[in-house]
Design a protein that fits this description.
Blueprint lengths: L1 H20 L3 H20 L8 H6 L2 E12 L3 E11 L13 E6 L9 E10 L2 H9 L2 E2 L6 E3 L11 H5 L2 E7 L2 E4 L6 E4 L1 H8 L5 H5 L11 H10 L7
Parallel strand pairs: 6-7
Antiparallel strand pairs: 1-2, 1-4, 2-3, 3-9, 4-7, 5-9, 7-8
C-alpha cells in the first residue's frame, strides 16, 4: 500500500516535467509526416519515369500523401493525411511556400484483400483548383476535375484531358509510379493537424495564401526538392 502511494506521488511530481518536455506529441507526428512527404517527393523525382517536367512547371501546388493505407472489407476505401505546398507570390510566381496539412478520404476502390500502403502525389494545375481546395472539402471528379497524370519526363502532356484537369493524380506502390484515378475520393484541409503543427487555430488560406506562418524545419527537404526541380511557374 505504501509503495503504491509512493509511486502515485512520484507520478504526480514528475508529470509536469513530462508535459513540459513534450507539450504536444501530435506536433512530432505532423512533422514526421512532412518529412516523409519530402522523402517521397525526392525519391519520385529521382526515377527516370516520373512527373513530366512541363506539368510540374505548370503546377500551382503539389500535394503529397505518404503511406496512405487502403483496406477493404465489403467495399474498399482509404483515409490518410498529407501536406500541400504552393508557389508563393502574385499569380503563384514565387518560390514554394509554407505547407498546410490535408486529409484524403476515399470512396469505393473495389474489392481488395488485406491492406497496402501507397504514396500519392497530386498536382494542382490552375488557380480555380487551388481556390477550391483552400476553402472547403472537395470531391475529386465531382467538385473539382481530376485525371490520372502521365508519367515520363518527356511524356506528352498536352492532351485535352490533361489540359482541362484541375488536379492530376499519381500513386506509388511496390516501387511502381503511375498515374491513377482518385475519382470519388475527397480532399479537405486538416484543421486539427494544422493546429497541432503550428500551435494555434489557423486555416489553410492563412498558411498558404496569406503567409501567416513560417515553414517548419521539417519542410526543408520537401521545399528544397520542389524548388530545385521546378524553380518557377511556367504558364505556357
Amino acid at each position: 500500500m505504501k509503495r503504491s502511494l509512493a509511486l502515485a506521488a512520484a507520478a504526480l511530481l514528475f508529470a509536469p516535467l513530462l508535459i513540459a518536455r513534450n507539450p504536444n506529441p501530435d506536433t512530432k507526428d505532423e512533422s514526421n509526416r512532412i518529412e516523409n512527404a519530402g522523402k517521397v517527393m525526392q525519391e519520385i523525382l529521382n526515377v527516370p519515369d516520373d512527373i513530366p517536367q512541363d506539368l510540374l512547371d505548370k503546377a500551382r501546388c503539389v500535394i503529397v500523401l505518404p503511406s496512405i493505407v487502403k483496406a477493404a472489407f465489403i467495399f474498399g476505401g482509404s483515409y490518410g493525411h498529407g501536406v500541400m505546398t504552393c508557389r508563393t507570390g502574385a499569380g503563384y510566381t514565387g518560390p514554394w511556400g509554407t505547407p498546410a496539412m490535408y486529409a484524403l478520404e476515399g470512396g469505393s476502390w473495389g474489392l481488395q484483400i488485406g491492406a497496402e500502403a501507397t504514396d500519392y502525389v497530386l498536382l494542382v494545375m490552375n488557380d480555380s483548383g487551388v481556390d477550391s481546395l483552400l476553402h472547403s472539402k472537395v470531391s475529386l471528379g465531382g467538385d473539382i476535375s481530376a485525371a490520372a497524370g502521365p508519367v515520363g519526363r518527356t511524356a506528352s502532356a498536352d492532351t485535352d484531358a490533361y489540359m482541362r484537369a484541375e488536379i492530376l493524380t499519381y500513386s506509388r506502390a511496390r516501387g511502381a509510379f503511375v498515374g491513377i484515378s482518385l475519382s470519388g475520393s475527397s480532399l479537405r484541409p486538416d484543421t486539427k493537424a494544422n493546429h497541432d503543427l503550428y500551435g494555434r487555430d489557423i486555416t489553410a488560406i492563412e498558411i498558404i495564401s496569406e503567409s501567416k506562418v513560417h515553414a517548419p524545419a521539417s519542410a526543408d527537404l520537401l521545399l528544397h526538392t520542389l524548388q530545385k526541380a521546378s524553380p518557377r511557374l511556367k504558364t505556357s
